[in-house]
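W.,

You were right to be curious about this one. When I first looked at the sequence I had no strong expectations either way, so I just let the prediction run and decided to look at it fresh. Below is the sequence, 121 residues in total, followed by the output.
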Amino acid sequence: MRKALVGVLLGIFAFLVAIFFGGAAGNVGAYIGVAAFMFVCQFLLSWGHVDAQRKDWPVMLALAAPLLVATFMMVLVERIETVLEQGPILLFACVGIYAGAVTASRMTRRRGGPLSPRTRQ
């Protein structure tokens, strides 16, 4: 529950990351900046869990929830050109989130983390 709350707060902070990188490097910069930010956030939230990409779905959804709500509202309110221009940020965020979970899981397995099969031997 605590990780999910932290995920929502970090998801809200992703808007500032998008504005910062979007202002500096345009839409593509915002997409890459948000993907990298979400990767780091999910990596830190999933660290120490061997099956993070399979079992941390509540945390991943909580991290993506603010962007999901904003994208849904944007589809309802904005013109189609704006949606097509700014909408892919959610896709990039989801890719970053999943990549962070997979990376945390693999590194935990490699280092023999607390839930790793290596520590059971």
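Here's what jumped out at me. Residues 2-111 form one domain. And, maybe more interesting for your project: The chain has a mean pLDDT of 86.

Coffee later to discuss?

I.
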